[in-house]
Amino acid sequence: MSDTSMLLIPMQAREIAALHSPRLQTDAQEFWCDWISREVTAGNFVVTPKDGEWIHTNGMTLEEYLEHWLKSRPHAYVPVQLQDPTDDLWTCVPANITRRGARLRALREFCGSDAAALVLLKEEAAGFGITNPLSTEIGEKIDPKATKKLAGHNRDNPYNPAPRGGEQARTDRIIKFVSNPAGAKIAPSLARSAKPPCRIDGSPL
To answer: Which of 6, 67, 119, 153 has its CA at 20 to 30 Å from residue 51's CA atom?
Structure first.
């Protein structure tokens, strides 16, 4: 196993923390990644002879080590749960920008990223025919039986199923997205929020 592959351990640790359920606070994720980086530098990861994978010298995989690490850090978890918004958030007249802003903040706390939160807000608004969720546009409730897939889902989140082209189109979209540094930064949050949730490479959890 090369030194290059060892450098991927902190990246894998970041992905595992981002996809962890219950959700971890952003600061806790960063602290965990710094912790793992120091462990890698100290030589505390070894390759298993059986499958050639990196594990900690205590015998734990990264997933197991994260659970062990969290046992003494209950404050690492996000203290709030994301609640589904009521329909009148998008359909009330006049539009309530204050409530829409509060929804954006709730999404930010949930996914740990401003950019990812805005994508999710756009998805919700698109379900009511709204193109700009932070505007005074008034939405209309869409019958879910009439629309199996909301346009906002497929347009904004590359990890959701593609409307055309099948799995290959989705894979191409993900590769293009994570190739952009800005996209790569919010990829873990969007992957976790996809329908269904997945890893940052698009594979199932």
So the answer is: 67
